[in-house]
Design goal:
Blueprint lengths: L1 H17 L8 H16 L3 H27 L8 H32 L2 H20 L3
């Protein structure tokens, strides 16, 4: 009796754990965690954070728009060479636009903060993403 009750209890526990709804991505929470990580990793002061993060959020918003455009081309199935060539050219154009955007914002960042701090921020951002994808965050 005890064994079957214990087995039943473990079965219900296992089922309830598996039945948990999947975690939905929350962009605001992600951004807050990223900013917190960068602030701690680089030891940004409140003044530096207040100057940097509004410009950084502006960059991220523009990047998302370009990523959305790039993402559309993943679902394109060209039927002829002309359409395929146009899709390749458009993707290249968008990727160059992304690099140009990053370059422009790096200049803006260095106008706000010392270049060494900007470099540390870029490394911290990369570290955050690596840790997130490895499941350590």
């Amino acid at each position: 009796m005890k064994k079957s009750l214990l087995t039943l209890l473990f079965t219900f526990a296992a089922i309830s754990m598996v039945a948990q709804p999947p975690h939905k991505f929350d962009p605001e929470q992600f951004q807050a965690e990223l900013e917190k990580f960068i602030t701690a990793e680089v030891s940004l002061s409140q003044a530096e954070s207040a100057a940097f993060f509004p410009v950084y959020r502006e960059l991220r918003k523009k990047q998302r728009n370009i990523f959305e455009q790039i993402k559309r081309y993943k679902y394109v199935k060209p039927t002829d060479n002309k359409t395929a060539a146009e899709a390749v050219k458009q993707q290249d154009k968008l990727e160059l636009e992304m690099k140009e955007l990053l370059k422009d914002y790096h200049i803006k960042f260095m106008a706000l903060l010392p270049a060494t701090t900007v470099f540390q921020i870029l490394k911290a951002e990369d570290k955050f993403h690596r840790q997130l994808f490895k499941g350590k965050k």
